[in-house]
Amino acid sequence: MPRRNRSSRRSRGHSDPPGAGVVTGWARSESAPDGEWLVRPVPGAHAAKVYRCPGCDQEIRPGTPHLVAWPADETGSVADRRHWHRACWEARQRRGPTRRR
Ligand SMILES: [Zn+2]
Q1: Residue 89 alpha carbon to ligand 1 centre in Å
Q2: For residue 5, how far is the Cα from the chain centroid?
Q3: Per-residue b/e over 26-51, b at no fewer than 16 CB within 10 Å?
Q4: Closest CA to 67 of 31, 89, 45, 41
């Protein structure tokens, strides 16, 4: 059975980008001003390590629900993914630490 079965039609504009989300199974793709990202939520029960959030430069403690994001155009390098506080990820899209317009 196909992996992309979970077609919640929440995507705005683009439908089912080829390749995105397939690699890890259940990551969703997000379009941001700085590119396309794959985002995967991490429930608190699965957060067993301390991560450093690139948004606020503070630690994400074990047991904290957060999310993992990595560039969609580098679907091969899962090692490149970064852990974010959920709020920081969303704030990032508004503020944008790197402004290249
Ligand atoms: Zn943060």
Answers
A1: 7
A2: 19
A3: ebbbbeeeeeebbbeebeeeebeeeb
A4: 41
Structure tokens at 63: 């047991």
Extents of the domains making up the chain: 21-95
β-bridge mates for residue 67, sequence order: 41, 84
Q: What's the CA-to-centroid distance between 20 and ligand 1, angstroms?
A: 25
Ligand 1 centroid, distance to 84 Cα (angstroms): 6
Task: Say how many Å lie between the CA of residue 51 and the centre of ligand 1.
Answer: 10
Q: Is the pTM of this model over 0.85?
A: no
Which pLDDT tens digit goes with each residue over 14-37? Answer: 444 444 444 445 788 898 887 888
